TrEMBL record:
UniProt key word Repressor: no
Residues annotated to bind Mn(2+) 2: 126
Keywords: Arginine metabolism, Hydrolase, Manganese, Metal-binding
Co-factor remark: Binds 2 manganese ions per subunit.
Needed cofactors: Mn(2+)
Lineage: Bacteria, Pseudomonadati, Pseudomonadota, Betaproteobacteria, Burkholderiales
One GO cellular component, as annotated: cytoplasm
GO biological process, one term: arginine metabolic process
Documented EC number(s): 3.5.3.1
Stated name of the protein: Arginase
């Protein structure tokens, strides 16, 4: 990746989450110097500031969805902002915000790929499969549903945001780090044929092998999107998230994951979501996220041929 042009887009909301605080994520990432640190690696960075959407009314679910109208509004804003950056030839980094925003972001990337004749590969780094529906969800929190919505399973006003239903095919996704899936969701993930490298797979086969498979068959015409839910990481190193699940990737495993993605040279867009500064310790999770993003943009310990 030669000196990419990066645009930071803040989406300060926790509208799809079960805990408040992810709305402070964009500012915590800025305080952790995401912009200057990327610039130190030769990246051209423009910070577009924050999108401005509806407040969080903190209401119970209606028909199995919490805050659906507000989630739709935020995702429309994200969709347009991400699509506009891609159309300018820039690499958008969405600073979330909770993971419901992956719907707006990835539907925009899929639309851009349709318009430019590119193939799309989505790497979903997460403790959770985020493949719930309003019937399967125990909570109604829409941050557990974006992958299902992208694959066409969800409320019309959400799944139609990208202009084509489904926005993406399950075959385009690779999920990595998964270790918490609700019972009904488990069956649905299996039915849909999602390719999942869960923690058991990573324990048995190693991060290297998982990433080799997840990145296999990329070619020069592939747009690679990374949707990085910070709860992907083990909570020992990343406590600042709303839904911690023990047994995640270690610091070294996460670095290797990011470095192998960087080595492909195909990264075209990124979401950084679910960082919750209200639960963090002195911004250490934000700093860790920025450290990993540095690796995603090519930081390495030594020169490698
Ligand atoms: Mn997630």
């Amino acid at each position: 990746m030669q000196h990419p042009l990066v645009s930071l887009i803040g989406a300060p909301t926790d509208i799809g989450a079960g805990a408040r605080g992810a709305s402070m994520g964009p500012e915590a990432l800025r305080v952790a110097n995401i912009g200057p640190i990327l610039e130190s690696h030769g990246v051209d960075v423009v910070d577009r500031g924050n999108l401005s959407g509806p407040a969080n009314p903190w209401q119970p679910p209606v028909n199995g969805y919490r805050h659906l109208p507000e989630v739709v509004a935020w995702n429309r804003l994200v969709h347009e902002a991400v699509h506009a950056e891609l159309a300018l030839g820039r690499l958008p980094i969405l600073l979330g915000g909770d993971h419901c925003l992956g719907l707006g972001s990835i539907s925009a990337v899929a639309r851009h790929c349709r318009e430019t004749g590119k193939k799309l590969r989505v790497l979903w780094l997460d403790a959770h499969a985020d493949f719930n529906t309003n019937e399967l969800t125990p909570s109604g929190n829409i941050h557990g549903m974006p992958v299902a919505c992208l694959c066409g399973h969800g409320p019309r006003e959400l799944i139609e945001i990208g202009g084509q239903v489904p926005a993406i095919h399950p075959r385009w996704i690779r999920q990595i780090g998964i270790r918490s899936v609700d019972p009904g969701e488990k069956r649905f993930v299996h039915q849909a044929g999602l390719e999942v490298f869960d923690m058991r797979y990573i324990d048995e086969m190693g991060m290297r092998h998982a990433m080799e498979l997840a990145l296999a068959t990329l070619d020069a015409n592939t747009h690679l999107h990374v949707s990085f839910d910070v709860d992907f990481l083990d909570p020992d190193i990343a406590p600042g998230v709303g839904t911690t699940v023990p047994g995640g990737p270690t610091y070294r495993e996460a670095q290797l994951c990011m470095e192998m993605i960087a080595d492909t040279g195909r990264l075209g867009s990124l979401d950084v979501v679910e960082l919750n500064p209200a639960l963090d310790l002195r911004n250490k999770t934000a700093e860790l996220a920025v450290d990993l993003i540095e690796s995603l943009f090519g930081k390495s310990t030594l020169m490698r041929a």
